[in-house]
Design a protein that fits this description.
CATH class of the largest domain: Alpha Beta
Order of helices and strands: EHEEEHEHEHEEHEHEHEHHE
CATH topology of the largest domain: Rossmann fold
Number of helices: 9
Largest sheet: 10 strands, mixed
Number of domains: 2
Strand order of the largest sheet: 5-2-1-6-7-12-11-8-9-10
Number of strands: 12
CATH superfamily of the largest domain: HUPs
Oligomer: single chain
Radius of gyration: 20 Å
Distance between the termini: 25 Å
Structural class: alpha/beta
Shape: globular
Length: about 280
């Protein structure tokens, strides 16, 4: 039995994370942990909302704190009720310290993390990926499933392969966690320069490896810039497709000058992304 953690902001509860998490845990007989990031430095109100003529109003502070407490309680209750209804084995963690630190620690002891791709743990909307998601993906210790805000069961798997060890590692980790999906439609997508051959990088080794796990896999080799061609290709895929890729293996300094493919896809497509990277 695998251990899956589903990550929630109790002040902005994600229904899609709940639905994906319960669907996957039930399908694969996994133990599900609802991780509620009840970071006490993060509130549902802004400081200026507490101001009165006398300064910060203790009465307003108490009122808004109670509202936050109630929202978080209802969110955990909604998760618990849904798990019981589905017959899913589960438990709940309330992480009250700094959210990113708590979540990275949780990831050490997990097989898979499921989180809303738009998660911010702030009051504000941010361009995807948010600072919280970037920091998470850079240091997370287990594969991450970034999900859109509408749940759909997976019906097609798309592996993004560029010849780098991180892309093969992601395929391996996906296979270990989702072994039951080996008979689903699978496509391996790669991008080559216009003047290169259409052979995959390490063509023989890669196809030999994939055949052992996904014997009916199809291959698609595109030509052009990977950041452009892959995004355009994935826009044409059904909403039930799941994309698997390695990411965030480069140094933080490198990422300042070149986006990760995961960043590009989070900005341009609305498919669930399974991301795993070796250190």
């Amino acid at each position: 039995m695998k251990k899956i953690i589903a990550v929630f902001d109790g002040l902005k509860f994600s229904e899609s994370v709940k639905e994906y998490a319960i669907h996957i845990s039930k399908l694969y007989a996994a133990h599900l942990v609802g991780v509620f990031l009840d970071d006490m430095t993060y509130t549902g109100y802004k400081i200026y909302e507490l101001l009165s003529q006398e300064g910060v109003s203790e009465a307003l502070l108490k009122k808004y704190d109670e509202i936050d407490k109630t929202k978080r309680k209802h969110a955990a209750s909604a998760f618990e009720t849904a798990c019981k209804k589905a017959g899913t084995e589960f438990n709940i963690h309330h992480d009250k310290k700094i959210a990113i630190h708590e979540l990275l620690h949780e990831s050490i002891y997990s097989d898979l993390m499921i989180i809303d791709r738009k998660e911010t743990l702030t009051h504000y909307d941010e361009k995807q990926p948010s600072r919280f998601i970037r920091n998470l993906l850079a240091d997370v210790q287990c594969p991450v499933l970034l999900v859109p805000q509408k749940f759909l069961p997976f019906k097609k798997i798309i592996f993004l392969y560029n010849g780098e060890p991180s892309s093969v590692y992601a395929i391996k980790m996906f296979g270990y966690i989702f072994a039951e999906l080996k008979n689903m439609e699978v496509q391996v997508v790669s991008v080559k320069n216009p003047n290169d051959t259409l052979h995959l990088p390490d063509n023989t080794l890669m196809k030999e490896f994939v055949k052992r796990h996904y014997p009916d896999a199809l291959y698609e080799v595109l030509r052009g810039l990977p950041e452009v061609e892959i995004a355009e290709y994935l826009k044409e895929q059904p909403a039930s497709a799941l994309v698997v890729l390695g990411a965030y293996r480069r140094s933080a300094a490198s990422r300042l000058f070149r986006q990760s493919m995961a960043d590009v896809l989070m900005n341009n497509i609305n498919l669930p992304l399974f991301i795993a990277h070796n250190k």
